[in-house]
Structures are given as C-alpha cells and as structure tokens.
Amino acid sequence: MQKRSGVLTFFILVFLFAGAGTAGAHGGFDAREAVCLKSYPTDPALFNETVGPYVQKIIDRYGLEEWKATLLTNEMHRHLGLWSIIGAKMGVRAREVLNAPFDQLRVVSFAGTTPPYSCLNDGLQVSTGASLGRGTISNANIGSPKAQFFHDDKGVYMRPKTEVVNAVRQAIKELSQKYGFQSQEYFRQLEKVAVKYWLEWDRSRMFEEKAMP
C-alpha cells in the first residue's frame, strides 16, 4: 500500500502543476529554483521514520540538487521506488554531464509504459524538467531502462550498469517471495530498500554513459 505524506504531497502537487522554475536564465548546471516554495525541506523532523535518518546523509553525499529531484520524484511516484529513484539520479547526472540548466534538456526515454521500467520516466521528468506537457520528453516504448539526453549540440546516452539492474531485480524477487508481490508489507519493505540505495548509489558511477554527436 502506497503511503501518503501530508504536507509533502501538497507541495509536490503545487510545484508540478505551477510550471518550471527560472533556472535556465542562469546557464550551466545550476540549481532548481522553486515556484511556490521558499525552500525545499531538509529538516529530518519533517520526514517519516523510513526517510528521516537518511536525509542529512543523502544531502551531504550528493548535494541539494539531487536531493530536490529525488524527493519530488518519490512524492509524485507515490512511493519510494527503485526505478523512479534511478530515473531521478540519471536525469541529474545528464544535466551535470551536459552542463544543462534545469528545464533545458530534451529527453528520449526507452523505458516504455509498463512497470517496472516505466517508473524510470517519473524520475526523468522531475529531475530534468522535460515533461510530456511541454513536449520535451518522448517515449520510444521499447521497455528498457535507458535514455538519451540532448542540450544544444551535445547529447549523452545513459543506462544503469549491470550491477545496479541486478540489485533491483534481486530486491524485487526477494521481497515478492517473502511478502507477496505488491502486498502492503511488500511496499513497506521496498521503501526501506529504496532509501538504502538512494544513499548508496552514486550517480557518477552507476551509469554507462556514451557521448552522442
């Protein structure tokens, strides 16, 4: 059963439907600017018992930009999912590689429209600002967890490394066998696994990256 999160659910909905920020005006890999919020929550006391102990560790290790993207992704996705977190980290990494401001990327996803790979799409949209509404992300519907990113005359192809994919598959297999696939307890335990990998997966090391002309 997917958990709701009160105040956080409210601000993610406000943010997503209000439109993109103005980060593109500054150029380069700059920060996502809020539309309605004065600041993004970073106080562990604002988070549930699953996420709270990890908040500061994640921010210290990966910075505020990835924290914002992955936090908002989890709220939109309605639970802490492994593929959605991978998508968020992939989008932030693509912006970093291409030195692209928020909301300035064009994205082609190959994740398709069927879970679990399609969960990648939520992270890709939130982390880059590319969205279906703006027509800046398209879905090749191949059913593979990979994507292409373009900014100006540069591009990069990315997919998670084999060890990352295997870790996800193993986690889902073990939880399904123990608790029943998508049962209430399955989702509770999945969130514990997801926040652990949220901390452990380094976006600069977890993807195969290939520059595109």
Can you tag this structure with a few keywords?
213 residues, 45% helix, globular, disordered N terminus, 60s Ribosomal Protein L30, Chain: A
Describe the structure.
With 213 residues, the protein is an alpha+beta fold. The protein has one domain (7-212): 60s Ribosomal Protein L30, Chain: A (2-Layer Sandwich), CATH 3.30.1330. Helix content is 45%, strand content 12%. It has six helices and five strands; from the N terminus they run H-H-H-E-H-E-E-E-H-H-E. It has helices at residues 7-18, 55-77, 82-98, 120-128, 162-179, 184-200, and strands at 106-109, 137-139, 147-151, 154-160, 207-212. A five-stranded mixed sheet has the order 2-1-3-4-5. Strand 3 and strand 4 (154-160) form a beta hairpin. Helix 2 (55-77) packs across helix 3 (82-98), helix 2 crosses helix 4 (120-128) and helix 5 (162-179) packs antiparallel against helix 6. The longest helix has 23 residues, at 55-77. The model is unreliable at 1-27 (pLDDT under 50).
Nutshell version of this structure?
The chain has 213 residues and is an alpha+beta fold. The protein has helices at 7-18, 55-77, 82-98, 120-128, 162-179, 184-200, and strands at residues 106-109, 137-139, 147-151, 154-160, 207-212. It is globular, with a radius of gyration of 16 Å.
